[in-house]
Fold each of these.
Amino acid sequence: MGKRAGAPRQDLAAMLAPLMRELLAAEQSVLAKHGLTMWGYAVLSTLDRSAFRTQAALAEAINADKTRIIRTLDDLQDDGYIERHPDPDDRRVRLLAITDKGRDVKDAVQDEIQRGEERWLGELTQEERRVFLRALARMAPG
């Protein structure tokens, strides 16, 4: 095998894992302040990007087991953040929608999280930031 030119770099996971741990820890305090869990925030964010979804489709979209998110959905509904209605075409299926109250809390959390991300993004020049965010968007699954 030939030797690669240039300095070796760490694997992507080795570079991203410490950053992800810091980002998730910073998000956790914001979520707790607003009374949301990470799964609750994921549900609200996903529902805000799309119309009614079934619980099964939502679970797939956020990569969660459909039976394990039921408690999260119950909590979000109890807080008035989502609505669940029977599907008129199949009464066994529940259709989900974010409420205005749910959108307001999701927007508040997202704004606060993104303001906190300036700690890391502020290390980049405007051009580096633009390229970094564009590259992440391109590489992100889904």
Note: The chain has a mean pLDDT of 91.
Amino acid sequence: MCGRLNMSLDPADLADELRLDVVSYDHTPRYNVPPGSFVPIVVERLDDEAQLTRRLETASWGLVPGWAKDAKIGFKAFNARSETVLEKPMFRQSIKRRRCALPIPGYYEWETTEDAKQPWMMSAAGEDPLFMAGLFEFWKQPDQSWLVSTTIMTMESTGHLHDVHHRMPVFLNRGAIDEWIDPAVPGSGIPSLLESTLAQVDPATVTRHKVGRSVGNVRNDGPELTAPVA
């Protein structure tokens, strides 16, 4: 499960490496980002001239499908289980047509101990942020404007991440991003795409350290939240 993010770094700094054509995400450093907040997503969409463009867009974290009657449904859909994403009405259209990558510096996870829940900071082992497989959707708001929303795909934890929690995000390596966000993948190829995406996940690309319990309060925000504790 992934329910709190560290968004301290500006993903627009990766514009050249990610071959971004358009950057519409306005970054503000945040260190304790809960569902319902706005986060960056990398998508490929046709522009007004029918040209495929790669874009860094802003999305509300918590997927709101087009058929939803209320945007509050998104608070229940900030994660999508990879095991059921092909069948669940909430996600089965998005997985076919609207897949994205979330460039995230890190996320928090809570380990259940005998005494309390210990928070951990999970971050990229290298210089790049973590890239998480996601889905996105469009929902028409009462004022007729469009809300873009997203969810983070999860899977059973493996490697050292299993020591903290039984779920983890579906991480994308650089080679997997292009295929995952490609809108041209036919519906018949989605099961194979999902299988290959899960197969390339490597928990060794993630490092972790314990952090203080103040991160549990979403009103707290600052770089001190990511500092290691004994």
Note: The chain has one domain: 5-109+127-202.
